[in-house]
Amino acid sequence: MRTKRLYQITRTFLHYGLNELIPARWMPWSVRLARYSLFWLPNRHKDKPAGMRLRLALESLGPVWVKFGQMLSTRRDLLPPDIALELAKLQDKVKPFPGEQAQQLIEKALGLRSINDAFIDFSVTPLASASIAQVHTATLRNGDDTGADVVIKVIRPDIRGVIAADLRLMETLAGVLAKHLPDGRRLKPKEVVKEYRKTLLDELDLAREAANAIQLRRNFEDSKLLYIPKVYSDFSRPNIMVMERIDGIPISDVDALLAIGVDMKKLAERGVEVFFTQVFRDSFFHADMHPGNIFVSRENPQDPQYLGIDFGIVGTLNREDKRYLAENFLAFFNRDYRKVAELHVDSGWVPAHINVEDFESAIRTVCEPIFNKPLAEISFGHVLVNLFNTARRFEMEVQPQLVLLQKTLLYVEGLGRTLYPQLDLWQTAKPFLERWMKEQLGWRAVLRSVKEQAPYWAEKMPEMPNLLHEYLSTQKHQIEHQQAATQALLRSQRQFAWRLWWGMTGAALLVSTTLLWTSNQPLWLTSVSGVLTVLSIAMSWRKASHN
C-alpha cells in the first residue's frame, strides 16, 4: 500500500513537472538518473506557471496535501512570492461522504439507539464538507436547550489512516530534501513537516477544538467585536462536536455586505482590533482566520460584529514573547532599528554572539525602502515576514508561536484590505499597542498585579507571625553557624601560615647545612645547623597533623 501511494505521489509530481522547480545542479546524479528512468511520466503541464503546477498537484493528491499547501502558503520566508500567492488559492472543499454514515458515527459516539433520541430534524445532506470533517444541521431534542438549532461536525471515517500514511511519506521526502538540497538547512523541510504533523493531528481532535471554542467564547463574552457560537459539551466527543448554528454573511461576500449597508471601514478596523485583543489581552488567538471561517452578523450593520467558527488551530504567547513582540512593533512604528535588533537578542530569538550593529544594518536595509511608501500602501504582514527573513540570516531559529502569529496577521490584513482597501493597519494598530504597553509598564500594571496577588497575600496573612518567628530563629542559628565556621577558617589559616613558615625555614636550613658540610666548615657550626633543620621540619609536620 505504501509503495503504491509513493508511486502515485511520484507520478503526480512528475506529471506536473515539480522536479523542474529544483535546479539541476542541486540534484545528485542518482536522482537525475532516477528521473530519466521514469521516461513514461513526462511533464504534461509545461504551459502553466510553476506555482499553478504545484497547486494543481497538491489538489490532485488529496486533503492531506491540500492542507500542507495551505500551511506552506503562510511561510513566505521559505517560498518565492508568486508560489506562496498561488498556494493561498488552495481550497479544501471536497466531496462529502454519505450522510447515513455520518449519522451512524454520531449515534456510536454518543451511545444513541437512534439519532432522534438526541436531535430533531437531522439533515442527512451535509451543510458543508472539508478535507478533515463535514457538518450537518439538526435541532436539539432534550435538556435546557431543547429546540436550539445546532450544527454537528463529524470527523471523516478512516481519515486518520490516510493522514498517518501520507505523513510518513512526507517525512521520508523531507529527509531526502534535507540531505540533498544545498539550501536544506535554511528551508528545514523536516522541521516544516513536523510542525504540520502537530497542526494536523490537533485538528483531528474535536474535543480540543471544543475547548478552544469555549475559551474564545469566554474571552469575548458580551463583546461587540466578535461572537463565538456556544458549544454543547454534553454532546461533543473527540470525533464529534455540537455547537450553536449561526446565521451570518461570509466575510468574502463583499457584495452581500454592501447590500445590507455594513460600515466597511469600521468592519475592517474591528478585524484588526479583534486580532490584537486576542494576542495582547488574552494571549490566545484564533490562528486559522481565513475567509471560510469568518462571517459577519446580519444584525446592526452600522455596528458590525464578526462571527467565528473552526477553532482547531489556536496560538498562544507567553508573557515575555508578548511584551517583546509589542515592543518590536512599536520600535518599527518609530523606525528604531537598533531597538528592534536589541529586542531580538534580549528575547533569545537571535543568539547573543550576533553582532548587533550588523543586525541593525540588515534590518534598516530591508525596512527603509518600505517606509518611503505611503502608509496605506505598506503591508504590515509583509514587513513582519521581511523581519523574520532577515533575522533567520542571523541564526534566528523558527519560533512556532511566531509562525502562527505571522500567518494570522497575513489573513487579517488581507481581509481588512479586501473589505476596505484604504485600511491603514499601522495607524489602526499603533494606538492599541501604545495603550497596552502603558498598561503593562505603568502604574496600572502595578495596581493590576496587586489585585491579582491580593487573594494569595490574604491567605498567607494569618501565617505571617509564625513565618516571621521561624525566619528570625533560622537567621539566629545561621549567624551562629557562620561565626563558628569563620573562626574555624581563621584557625585553619593561621595553622597553615605557621606550617608554611616552618617548612620554608627548614628548607633554608637544610640548604645551609648542606653548604656548610661541603665547604668543610667547623663541625660544631654544621651540627647546630643540622639540629635546627630537624627541629624546623618537625614543627612543620606537627602543624600539618593539627590541620
TrEMBL record:
The active site is at D288. The chain crosses the membrane at residues 500-517, 523-541. Pathway: Cofactor biosynthesis; ubiquinone biosynthesis [regulation]. One of its GO terms (cellular component) is plasma membrane. Keywords: ATP-binding, Cell inner membrane, Cell membrane, Kinase, Membrane, Nucleotide-binding, Transferase, Transmembrane, Transmembrane helix, Ubiquinone, Ubiquinone biosynthesis. It holds the Pfam family ABC1. Residues 89-344 form the ABC1 atypical kinase-like domain. It is an enzyme of class 2 (transferase). It is found in: Cell membrane. One of its GO terms (biological process) is regulation of ubiquinone biosynthetic process. ATP binds at L127, A128, S129, A130, S131, I132, A133, Q134, V135, K153. It is a multi-pass membrane protein. The keyword Kinase applies. Its EC number is 2.7.-.-. The keyword Ubl conjugation does not apply. Is probably a protein kinase regulator of UbiI activity which is involved in aerobic coenzyme Q (ubiquinone) biosynthesis. Belongs to the ABC1 family. UbiB subfamily. Belongs to the protein kinase superfamily. ADCK protein kinase family. HAMAP family: UbiB (MF_00414). This is Probable protein kinase UbiB. It comes from Pseudidiomarina halophila. The gene is ubiB.
